[in-house]
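Final report, Chapter 2: Outcomes

The project's central promise was a pipeline that accepts a single protein chain and returns its three-dimensional structure in a standardized token representation, suitable for archiving and comparison. That pipeline is now operational. To close this chapter, we reproduce one record exactly as it appears in the project archive, with the input sequence first and the structure output second.
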Amino acid sequence: MNSKELRKHFLKFFENNGHKIVPSSSLLPTDPSVLFTTAGMQQFSPYLAGKKDVLADFDSRHLASCQKCFRTDDIEEIGDDTHHTFFEMLGNWSIGQDDSGYFKEGAIDYALEFLESIGLDKSRMHITVFSGNDTISKDEEAIALWKQRGIISIKECDAKDNFWGPVSETGPCGPCSEIHYDRGESFGCGRSDCGPNCDYCKRYVEIWNLVFMQYFKNEAGEYELLNQTNIDTGIGFERLLSIIQGKNSAYETDLFSDVISKISNKENEVACRIIADHIRGIVFLADAGVVPSNTGQGYILRRLIRRIIRYGKMLGLDGDFWVSLVEATINKYKDIYLEIDRKETYEIIRKEEEKFSLTLDRGLKIINSIEKDISGKEAFDIYQSYGFPLEMIKEELSKKDLSLNENDFYKELKKHQELSRAGVEKKFGGGSNPYLHTATHLLHSALRKVLGEDVQQMGSDINDERLRFDFSFERKLTPEEIKEVEDLINSKIKEGLVLKKEIMSLNEALSSGALSFFKERYPEEVSVWTIYNKDSGDIFSKEICGGEHIENLSLLESFKIIKEESSSRGVRRIKATCQGKYTI
């Protein structure tokens, strides 16, 4: 099977077995605590938790999808056999139980039937199951079911590998069975104890994770049986495709062949893979409406574009090499995701390339002026200031028989990463002007009430004179909408709403309905600020924020929007003033 045939076969298999096929949700999630959709189950989270009625919305407890996903945690690992930024997840779900629902037995039967339908040999399947601990017993039920179906190799593993769900937080959770496929001795390490989850080779590849949600971890850390049990499964599409095509990695399959054939370079295969991966990621982020910027989702897109430009130069590719790669990627997916053929993608990359090329040229001049071996600190300064990857710096230096201290470079990189995390914590801690900080919360809430709850904060800045607030919205606000926002905020100021601060875990904050104000990583313990009517208890705003605020809105004077404009595609910007009556 090629990629299109495998994707189609999976969805048709589950449709024929009574599952409702659900389209992929956007790469940009509604959950403000995460940058991107990272798993197929994200759009179903409210149903898995029992917060929404799956029958009311889907008319079925049985669902299946092919979900677009994006992860950046392992971006430095891109280029090996298994990591990608953009990828697809195949999954099937049975949410809640009645006469039509299925649980462990049904999930196991569907998995084996599907895998055998695409030609995989059951004798080469190896299963890992939850071994149990002091709190929850071994998954004997799953072990018995696998044995009854002729699976001989079953390995018991601890919670790290075979228990899905919250470790320190609360929520639905349960044991899982992972299906690993033996690719053969040629992929092995030769050790007698080699098997699934081997630390020394990639002979056994995990292809499917079956999660049996049957517990709920409460605030006391106790595991209770769920009233509603769920099946949540996931297959890495690229990984499964490489196995059925007999390839070492997805980069050798038809998903990437059209792109890699245009940039093939046997001397630097990793660079070719990075470009191929990033081109795909760029196309899908641009399709989702992301534009390059210095923060959040836009920063990720900018980083991907600049990385392909850097690696393109490293491989000696022509300036517009990426044009044909974008075209090949769109052609590969436009029949699957009909919305993907966007002409803006080319313009986005071209503009970013123009900006970045100037920086690269300045960096080359610096490197060309070097006449002796350099320290790791000097190399890191070039990397940080001009966007040169380490490999590119080494290559330019080698042309002059010069070198750098690589160990010290990585020490500087680690130091920089620690400082960056500290900077995020400092930013999270806030400061600025408490009047305007409070008014920013009012503005965020008012915009969501006037324009709809799809509005999300995309950035903010506060100085002594004004607040600036960026938010997701596709069009210019009308004068009537601007006035409605102002009037709503001023009415709450006149009501004299009060503010309450609570310290809680991040998970508790998000579960309580608090909006997250920044896109960066939050600390484990956060401050939640609630603006509410003391008499009625009605809440106007509830957000995670570490800044300073006033205690009562009666300390504010009238709120005024002084400008509304475009910040970037799909993002609007408001500048506003709101002075305090008294000095704090």
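Archive annotation: The chain is about 40% helix and 20% strand.
This record, like all others produced under the grant, will remain available to the consortium after the project formally closes.
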